[in-house]
Amino acid sequence: MQTNMNLFQLSDQESFAAGIDVPISAPSFALQKLENFTILFICQGNARLEVDFQRYDLQPRQVMKLLPNQFFQCLEVSVDFRVSYITFTPAIMHEITVRFDPSFFAFLKQYPLSPPLTADKAENHRHLLQAVYDIYMERTHTFRLPIFKNFLQNFLMEIYDKTKALFLHRNAANTSRQEELLEKFISFVFQHSGTQREVQFYADQLCITTRYLSSVIQHLTGHTPKELIDIRCIQEIKMQLRTTNKTMQEIAFELDFPDQSFFARYFKKHTGLTPVAYRAQKTEV
Questions:
Q1: Inter-CA distances, 33 with 71, 142, 206, Å
Q2: Is the dihedral of CA 190, 195, 199, 205 positive or negative?
Q3: What are 64-82's pLDDT values in tens digits?
Q4: Which domains, ranges and CATH numbers included, belong to the chain?
């Protein structure tokens, strides 16, 4: 029986994995930074997860999409909790979504959990997941990987179609360029926000002015670039505080803060707690 959330891991010999109606008997309380893409279909029961330190309550017929570099923790599961899943590498994701609008990935980051599917839609998902699982189990099939990619692309196209209906309501010509800029900005933030917290750095990476970057990001997300940078940086700090025994001085140095005092003020400004208080609170829990 599955006793933790190691379904996110891939062996060195595999670029994808799948499971059907897998029982999760106990949550994995260890906070982790994901390396692969995972799609979870909730078959039965309920669970509470944290993704990038935001809580989500899962129920049957929902689909959760998890991306590399997101912070994940399973907090609670019911005794009857079961999922079907597909886990695959970033290289596969890039190959099969090369023609998707960049806004699709921004949407996945912002809305990882879908509303519950209708019974008919849920049944369609089950059939597709079963087909993926069947080809996963055929280890000697000559065309195993291409068939998997085809199934996965069909699955993501279904999600993508709903994404366009929910998310892409803007003028296509201008928006396409802006959404591409948004995706690149978010990608840079995921890579560098631990140590780079100024908007100018990201504007330089994108070869645009800070004014134009701020205009585009606020228009598409409702947040300023600085707000998104700080949100991700705080997530990086929380990860360090909850998963390491590093001192405040060590964390401040590693994340390129001028000193420990500045680091503590920055964290308290965005969370209402000092780093020491946050670590103590999570240790007690």
A1: 5, 33, 26
A2: negative
A3: 999 998 889 888 999 999 9
A4: 6-167 (2.60.120.280), 172-284 (1.10.10.60)
